[in-house]
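Before we proceed, please read the two lines closing this message. Tell me what the token row says about the fold.
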Amino acid sequence: MAFSESFLQELIERSDIVDVVGSYVRFTKKSGANQFGLCPFHSEKTPSFSVTADKQIYHCFGCGKGGGVINFIMDAEGLSFRDAVEFLAKRAGMPMPEEENSGDAQRRRRLLEANRDAAKFFRSCLTSPQGLPAAEYMAERQISPSTATRFGLGYAPDTWDGLREHLKSKGYSESELFDAGLLSRGRKGNFFDTYRNRLMFPVIDVRGDVIGFSGRALGDGEPKYLNSRETLVFNKSRNLFAMNLAKKSKSGYIILAEGNIDVVMMHQAGFDSAVASLGTSLTPEQARLISRYTGEVVIAYDADSAGQKASQRAIGILEKLDVKVRVLSMSGAKDPDEYIKKRGADAFRNLVEGSKNHIDFRLQSIEDKYDLSVDEQKVQYLKDATDMLAQLSGAMERQVYAMRVASKAGLSAELVQQEVERSRKRILRSAQRRQDRELSQPIKQLQPADKEYRYDDPESAAAEEGIIRLLFLDQGLFRGRELPEPGEFTSPVLAKIYGVLKEKAEHGGIISTATVSAVLEPGESALLASILQKPELLRNGQQALGDYISRIRKQKELAAEETDLIALANKFKETKGYGG
């Protein structure tokens, strides 16, 4: 739907960007009006993510993401513009305007309704005679009826059209059900049920909406787990199974597992903070979702080599969000489900409480690869261990764990500590060289972070950015002055942004990150944020504006002259017979 400028303006006035972003990012330093922290959208060790209070924008100097508070929620929560507005409106206690029958809003609502009705259908099938295969499977896995009710488990009957016919009778079209991922399409264009003869796990987001499903095969069907495909309402990389339940836990930590059954059995045993990713390794988006509800994660992945590798990857993602990470070490069982069944809930609780921190886990993983009684392998162990410790940000942590490595290898602590610091200096020097290379390329610095918006004429684009910056910061500068037309800009994306601002200025509209983002693409909003981050002295605004306009027109003249000279040179070559 289209929101009024006055509504959007009131929304951002009630949603201070420092407060909103501060619930996702821990600010570690302040410079003038800017707050800095580690970027939540890409991996980094040095804070390059800034929030500017007076301009109400965020910008990452590393990955280039940026915009206003609505753009931030779109990026952080994976929401559309409309849903991000609703998210902030709820946060601010503002009622949403009356919805028009806008296409996206109506489609999204229909898909969520279809998923909800599908979940009810699967649930009814589970409790009917045709649900016997699923009931037997649940009994075999020791899933109690009360747990099945809590998770809304259901059964997809072994038919090609059971769900389709049921939902069509409720008024849904086949195309809607296909868009929701509930139907699949055959080679001849016919529709059929996506899920057949499967135990169904509804995927419910933190708002309580059924956004998709995960179906466990009960026969010989493949794959063993079938997850909903990407839809308008379902993105598996941004959601976690059972997060809607785990967010209410009072345990103080989230247990991260691999499989749905593991999660169900942990909840049944009293561990109500367990969640699982949806057929993927942990993603940065899922990690950010977790970090909204806890500062500590216990990784309970399978004990096999694949699970150990996945644990290492998850550690790397979570520690960048300043989340404390511990890792379970399960001996005698391949996963939490098997461990609880073999040894009971109390033993599993002891396992959780005694789990290793992520540094212990990684050092143990390195040690397990080598025979330390063999000198060559001991040297390799020391190299891997010191390289890993060198990446720790805390000097005290590096020193304590270096002493432990030294003890394992039978060397002096001082020698290992020196090697750790030597390795750390190499890492820092390499990072500095990369940064120096970037800074030594001034033309590259003029280019947007997003290569899609590369400037053909960087010098003219710098002036075009200046005009946009002045117009955004002080519309009064443009009163009584003839403004350049967007067609005079050399960059199409800058011409578009300028055109939006110019139209609002000429018609008395509100210019703010919210009203402008409503008509820009996310990448264009990020570019605007990067433009606004650059310094501009408004006290000399009239002079600066005139200089920018003159520079654009001068560059256009130079470009025209260059084109004429090239044409003349080509004509001369042809006349003298130099061509070909």
Remarks:
- The longest strand covers residues 210-217.
- The CA atoms of residues 183 and 524 lie 35 Å apart.
- The two ends are 58 Å apart (CA to CA).
- The first helix runs from residue 5 to 13.
